[in-house]
Amino acid sequence: MNTGMRTFLMVILLVASTVVQTGCNPQPQGAQSPSPSGAVVPAHPLQVTVSILPQQYFVERIAGDLVTVNVMVLPGENPATYEPKPEQLRMLADSAAYFSIGVPFEDAWMERIASVSSRMLIVDTAQGIERKPLAETEQEIDDAQGSEDDHHNHAEGLDPHIWLSPRLVKIQAHTIFEALAGLDPQHETVYRTNLEAFLSDIDRLEEDIRASLRGVRNRKFIVFHPSWGYFANDFGLEQVAIEVGGQEPSAAELASLIEFAKREGIDVILAQPQFSRRSAETIAREIGGEVLLIDPLALDWLDNLSQVARAMAAVLQ
Fold first, then answer.
1. Is position 71 within any domain?
2. Residues 177 and 282 reside in one and the same domain
3. Domain range spanning residue 229?
4. Per the structure, how many domains does the chain have?
5. Residue 19 lies in a domain
6. Taking a C-beta distance cutoff of 8 angstroms, is the pair 76, 70 a contact?
7. Beta bridge partners of 231
8. Residue 218 contacts residue 266 (beta carbons within 8 Å)
9. pLDDT for residue 23
10. Model-level pTM?
């Protein structure tokens, strides 16, 4: 056999051996694969997990169809008391990142969540944000009345509702972008373009909200759960909460709130679907007003805040 034939047969055998080895060792579904340059490219779409629905909106605005987002606190659930289901904890094993935000259930569950996978990146989207104590986000009825009632002076930790401030969501958006770009540098340009479009939409939202609230007669509103403190701070409003410290108001506290509402000319009490409306309905009945539901946990964050602003403008007129 001449030299050329031997070389040809050796090439054929090498190719056949490579095919056999590849067939015996298939790449796992969803596994990372090398790019032509040899760099590791994440499988797409990336799977990530978030705590609440508005975060799903934030991540999807920045990542588009490059991610699949799992949400822990499902529609209608309360993030203060939520307990993740076993299947949700199992799902975390396939997540490239977990985006936390500081809602109460995370205090009890974050260590367990982080332990599910050593490869999962934990991203604190509240980083860089100074959160306020809940008492500082509420209008103090006691100060207005000069009473000794201390219902609105209870310490309840830091206010987690940072997703209801457009100003603070811009900070969260940058944090999400940086995490996604770090996980998937191949698509950093896509993430950056989407981030800039999202930030522009937030700027327009802020302008629209200010226009909606310009010239309103009253800047104070009563809400059952103190979710809207950061929103109120952004737009020069004052939040008065019925429920403070996770407790329903006493009879004396209800009477104080009713007197406050009458004196301030407030005839609409705001509540949210995830909490009892009993106290809000009691106050509304006593002042001859009504209860209006607004949802701080709606998925379509941009449209929801726009609708809430219009509702508040109507209430505060």
1. yes
2. no
3. 215-316
4. 2
5. no
6. no
7. none
8. yes
9. 40
10. 0.81
145 token code pair: 């009345």
Which pair of structure tokens corresponds to residue 199?
């930030």
Out of 203, 226, 260, a domain closes at 203
Same domain membership, residue 310 and residue 182? no
Three-state SS at 141: helix
CATH number where 69 lies: 3.40.50.1980
Q: Which of 159, 51, 54, 68 is nearest to 109 (CA)?
A: 51
Kindly state the tokens that stand for 285.
Answer: 């009945």
Sign of CA dihedral 146, 148, 151, 152: positive
Q: Are 50 and 168 part of one and the same domain?
A: yes
Residue with tokens 């000794």: 148
- Res 249: pLDDT: 86
- The sign of the CA dihedral 261, 264, 266, 267 is positive
- The closest of 40, 58, 38, 43 to 179, measured between CA atoms, is 58
CB 59 within 8 A of CB 48: yes
Terminal CA-CA length for the chain: 99
Tens of pLDDT, residue by residue, the chain (317 residues): 544 434 433 433 333 333 333 343 333 333 343 333 333 446 679 999 999 999 999 999 999 999 999 999 999 899 988 999 999 998 899 999 999 999 999 999 999 999 999 999 999 999 999 999 885 544 444 544 444 343 333 335 899 999 999 999 999 999 999 999 999 999 999 999 999 999 999 999 999 999 999 989 899 999 998 999 999 999 999 999 998 777 888 899 999 999 999 999 999 999 988 888 889 999 999 999 999 999 999 999 999 999 999 999 998 98
